[in-house]
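Dear Dr. H.,

I hope your travels went smoothly. While you were away I took the liberty of generating a structure for the chain from your last submission, since the lab meeting agenda had it listed for discussion. I wanted you to have the full record in hand beforehand rather than looking at slides cold. The sequence, exactly as received, is reproduced here:
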Amino acid sequence: MTSLNPRKLFGQAGESAAEEYLRRKGYRILARNLRSSLGELDLVAEDGQVLVFVEVKARRTDAFGGAIHAVHHRKQEKLIQLAAQYLSRHHIKDRLCRFDVVLLQGPNAVAPHIEHIQNAFEISGDDLRW
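The corresponding predicted structure, in token form, is as follows:
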């Protein structure tokens, strides 16, 4: 039997806390930890009629800045590709979509400080390949 490393366990606990937080806000969670050859979508949810791709970051300290700094340009490009892949695989067209970031911060992921940024980054029309 192999044990998960503490960092991975912390990240998983953060994703669970983020999922619960979004459910309490009225989001409907459609999928969690969707992996493909391109990478992983942490959460896919619906906020009313909007399909939301959620990147979750769990951090023990504020050493690297807040949620606004958690998803750099290269990560944004990867999330856009993953979202396009999700939409294609599920035959979804003409659906309003956005990208949110949820940052959980604290020494443990059980009772973290949560920062949620809706529509965390913009996508130009040229980047919309779905």
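Two observations you may find useful: The two ends are 42 Å apart (CA to CA). Residues 6-127 form a domain with the Trna Endonuclease; Chain: A, domain 1 fold (CATH 3.40.1350.10).

With kind regards,
E. W.
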